[in-house]
Give the backbone structure.
Amino acid sequence: MFRTASPRSADAYRRINVETSMHTIDQHQIVSLLFDGMLQALATARGALARGDVPGKCNAVARALRILEEGLSTGLDRVDGGELAENLAALYDYCTRRLILANAQNDDAILQEVQRLIEPVAEGWKAIKQGAVAAPAAAHAGA
């Protein structure tokens, strides 16, 4: 009467869920998710490298590279973003080159370096939203 869902069906539902959620969150949340995914991919790569799981490390580094190149880099406003966008573009380019080298040389120190470079940017990005939420609350409390 009932049969189990095929993996293709489950993937289709996951894609629909992701596509639907992308329309309900703002740009700030999308970038926050990209940073979270990037840091998670780096942690996964480092863990896989420590276990000697080369395919797992390669997959995680590839995911981090895709997030950098297709998400964070392409999301920069290079026209109106000014010096900040230029600096972030340079940082993302440097991290891309370092990740490729870390992957080729199985070098955890380079993975750690990229993680240390991205973490403060991610934290700063999240602080922007927290500051935007806190400012109206503080103004309203003072009124």
